[in-house]
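Subject: design request, 382 residues
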């Protein structure tokens, strides 16, 4: 087999007039990168669930909410104290510095059972200066259906640091939010039955990206591994898989499916533009046709110098302050540049860089290229 392959290379080199090394490099196919179905799709029904709750943090070192500006903090504290058997007069104005109102968020993973712990994120919703050193009091976490699925409590971990004195302030990272690892205890599980719908043993795989080619390749790979008829594509995103009915066999069946490797189809040509930051990202499938563009930057520079006119000591005049401004306007080169058609991402980047445009200008150029039909890609602005 190796001899035949070498003979094929020699024949190609002789017929095309290229060197033997060049012919060999052309014949050596770079294997396409395969990915596991685990990275390409997820099992329908196996999903996270967001949780949210409102609570109080105590034990702050004078950096809590200003209760006159955040009355809900005082109200929440009064309600909590009344539940603990301590009555607080409604007319009393508590001046607290060590308490802050916070929102607590968490993600309940699939198949979580009562008694397990999950991480939580705590964020200030008032005007507390810092949550460092605080303790979150028992806070129920609810799901979208209004039921309590976990209870949170614990000591805060804040990654930021700061100090202030005499009006000066230094701060590193964020002080108004933090995390509590394993800070919530799961109290209720979310049902996530596998293959227990209308047709027992039937699972739905949902691709992360809608693509007919990738869906068909995944179906073919599953059928080669388990036999014809095991999987079928319902559309460009959902694949129906027929598996075992017994629950004890379903876990192993799904584990094997997740580890099947599939080479996804090349993604559609797309250019992503972040209009807020000016970032531009394009994939390998982007192609351009020949086009010409005139690009010039208009920059205005204003320099102002303050002058003071001091009169003679015996002149009887007065001191006058004047301002002298110099304004410069630069239109840039603005020459007409020609960019050749190319199917290589590197060549496209080189051609656009020759224009001397910054990322923000590149956004306008790409939009104009799309309108002129010179850009063979989908333009998405985020």
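Subject: RE: design request

Done. Sequence follows.
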């Amino acid at each position: 087999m190796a001899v035949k392959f070498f003979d094929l290379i020699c024949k190609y080199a002789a017929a095309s007039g290229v060197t033997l090394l060049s012919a060999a490099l052309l014949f050596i196919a770079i294997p396409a990168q395969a990915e596991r179905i685990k990275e390409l799709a997820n099992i329908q029904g196996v999903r996270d669930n967001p949780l949210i709750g409102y609570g109080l943090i105590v034990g702050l070192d004078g950096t809590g909410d200003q209760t006159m500006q955040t009355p809900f903090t005082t109200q929440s504290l009064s309600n909590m104290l009344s539940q603990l058997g301590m009555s607080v007069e409604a007319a009393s104005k508590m001046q607290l510095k060590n308490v802050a109102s916070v929102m607590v968020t968490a993600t309940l993973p699939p198949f979580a059972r009562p008694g397990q712990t999950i991480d939580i994120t705590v964020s200030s919703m008032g005007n507390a200066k810092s949550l460092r050193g605080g303790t979150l009091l028992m806070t129920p976490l609810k799901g979208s259906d209004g039921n309590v699925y976990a209870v949170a409590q614990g000591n805060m971990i804040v990654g930021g640091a700061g100090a202030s004195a005499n009006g000066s302030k230094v701060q590193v990272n964020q002080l108004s939010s933090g995390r509590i690892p394993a800070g919530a205890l799961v109290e209720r599980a979310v049902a996530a039955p596998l293959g227990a719908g209308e047709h027992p043993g039937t699972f739905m795989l949902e691709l992360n990206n809608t693509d007919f080619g990738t869906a068909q390749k995944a179906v073919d790979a599953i059928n080669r591994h388990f036999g014809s008829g095991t999987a079928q594509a319902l559309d460009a995103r959902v694949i129906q898989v027929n598996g075992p009915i017994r629950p004890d066999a379903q876990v192993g069946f799904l584990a094997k499916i997740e580890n099947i490797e599939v080479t996804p189809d090349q993604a559609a040509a797309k250019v992503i533009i972040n209009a807020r930051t000016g970032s531009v990202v394009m994939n390998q499938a982007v192609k351009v046709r020949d086009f010409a563009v005139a690009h010039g930057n208009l920059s205005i520079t204003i320099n102002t110098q303050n002058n003071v006119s001091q009169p003679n000591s015996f002149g009887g005049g007065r001191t006058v302050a004047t301002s002298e401004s110099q304004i410069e306007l630069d239109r840039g080169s603005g020459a007409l540049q020609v960019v050749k058609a190319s199917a290589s991402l590197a060549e496209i980047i080189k051609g656009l860089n020759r224009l001397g445009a910054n990322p923000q200008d590149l956004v306008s150029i790409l939009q104009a290229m799309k309108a002129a039909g010179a850009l063979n890609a989908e333009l998405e602005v985020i």
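The chain has four domains: 1-30, 36-43+193-262, 49-163+171-186, 270-311+320-381.
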